[in-house]
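Q: Sequence in, structure out?
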Amino acid sequence: MLFEWLVDVLITVFMTVVVLASLVITCAALHPPRGPHA
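A: Exactly. Output:
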């Protein structure tokens, strides 16, 4: 079914975005923006 495949893809993309967002938030929390990138 195309619908089931689409749901699987959406779930995979959503999980990837959540994991990446968590990593970015963690890095931002561990490294305060007072370095050369500030």
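The radius of gyration is 16 Å.
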